[in-house]
Backbone:
């Protein structure tokens, strides 16, 4: 697996809903089975449902004390009731979305027989044993109305959530479909290569590579389905001004194919806009230098190799801890600023490896980070691995809490060994990170 796929799979298994396509590529057989098995889409949504059960968060004493699995995309996938509840909602994130001034600018719906790849798709459908496409059977999808519900930029990630209003919203309900065995089930999948954005005042189209998945309606009486999209953006993506996005969603008949275009029965093109300045950081980033010293055990094992403990000397090692004050949380990036002569790349990798606590309470080898608020200590949330192997952690601390809290205590530990062999935990440093 690539680093990106490994990251998605790890976060799905341990913390939150992940990109279903990456999970499937990693653990599921590509060929179809004739025996009865849970559909691929069901497996992924069960992961999603299980994660939501453990992803509870709360505001208390002016601070959002989230459990260790907070990620902003997981928050977006909560129900409206959860997002506006005093205990599980987050006013900072909701205000950020409101400040983005989301606007629907137009949409168009095509039936499959009106699409350029109709003949190719219908031929493959026939090879798969499906009946020929009948436009009359799918005429009702012309009345599906997309509406942008959420847009968030979180560093290099951009997230969209689209509601698909329909008199037949039950067609998006996977659980109903498999419980009753009646009707149809549609999956609203972003078309990877059919998204672009425009910058205000410029007609040039900039491509976006979008991945994502459809989501069950929340409740049997829901009047819409949902489609969740995510894409990576770089420093060229504007941080201010109005951005207009056009993306295409493929409506897939899951009885034929629930992940690839061969299940297409129609396509929706949807255009919306948002104000990128809503996602600007609350303060300029700060970099703190953390000198280390002493001798510690470190685990030199790679991802697919067994434990290999070695003693390393950290005299002369200085870590750089950068704090980013995003509206989606306080992001901490740890990397090496100074290394003594002879400090190997392998030792550096062991020092910055992602140490995290599993469901049984055991911590994996590597850098383990905690933060303390109001006298209580929590595990920092593992973020996507940074450039050059930097360790990234997310602290669920938000701009509205800066004045009350003033600062956050961050503690760095080095873990070595496995839980079975008696893992060692050694404290490296305590850092006070100012807020605002």
Residues:
């Amino acid at each position: 697996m690539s680093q990106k796929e490994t990251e998605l799979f790890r976060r799905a298994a341990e913390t939150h809903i992940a990109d279903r396509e990456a999970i499937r590529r990693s653990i599921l057989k590509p060929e179809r089975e004739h025996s009865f098995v849970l559909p691929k889409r069901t497996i992924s949504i069960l992961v999603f449902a299980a994660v939501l059960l453990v992803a509870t968060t709360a505001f208390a004493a002016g601070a959002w004390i989230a459990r260790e699995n907070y990620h902003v995309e997981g928050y977006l996938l909560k129900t409206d009731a959860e997002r506006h509840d005093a205990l599980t909602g987050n006013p900072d994130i909701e205000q950020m979305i409101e400040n983005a001034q989301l606007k629907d600018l137009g949409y168009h719906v095509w039936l499959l027989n009106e699409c350029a790849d109709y003949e190719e798709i219908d031929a493959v459908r026939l090879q798969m044993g499906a009946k020929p496409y009948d436009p009359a059977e799918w005429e009702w999808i012309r009345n599906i109305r997309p509406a942008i519900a959420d847009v968030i930029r979180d560093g290099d990630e951009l997230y969209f959530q689209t509601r698909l209003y329909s008199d037949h919203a039950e067609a998006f309900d996977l659980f109903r479909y498999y419980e009753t065995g009646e009707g149809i089930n549609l999956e609203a999948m972003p078309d990877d290569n059919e998204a672009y954005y425009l910058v205000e005042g410029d007609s040039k189209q900039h491509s976006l590579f979008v991945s994502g998945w459809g989501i069950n309606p929340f409740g049997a009486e829901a009047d819409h389905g949902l489609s969740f999209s995510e894409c990576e953006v770089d420093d060229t993506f504007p941080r201010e001004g109005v951005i207009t996005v056009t993306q295409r969603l493929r409506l897939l008949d899951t009885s034929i194919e629930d992940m690839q275009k061969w299940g297409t029965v129609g396509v929706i093109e949807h255009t919306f806009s948002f104000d990128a300045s809503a996602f600007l950081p609350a303060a300029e980033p700060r970099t703190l230098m953390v000198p280390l010293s002493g001798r510690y055990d470190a685990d030199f094992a790679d991802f697919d190799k067994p434990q290999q403990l070695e003693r390393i000397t950290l005299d002369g090692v200085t870590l750089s801890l950068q704090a980013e004050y995003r509206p989606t949380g306080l992001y901490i990036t740890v990397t090496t600023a100074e290394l003594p002569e002879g400090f190997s790349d392998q030792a550096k990798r062991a020092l910055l490896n992602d140490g995290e606590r599993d469901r049984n309470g055991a911590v994996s080898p590597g850098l383990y980070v905690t933060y303390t608020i109001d006298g209580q200590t929590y595990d920092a949330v593992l973020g996507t691995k940074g450039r050059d192997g930097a360790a990234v952690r997310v602290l669920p601390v938000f701009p509205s809490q800066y004045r009350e809290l003033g600062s956050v205590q961050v503690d760095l530990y080095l873990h070595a060994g496995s839980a079975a062999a008696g893992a060692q935990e050694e404290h490296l440093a305590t850092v006070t990170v100012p807020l605002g």
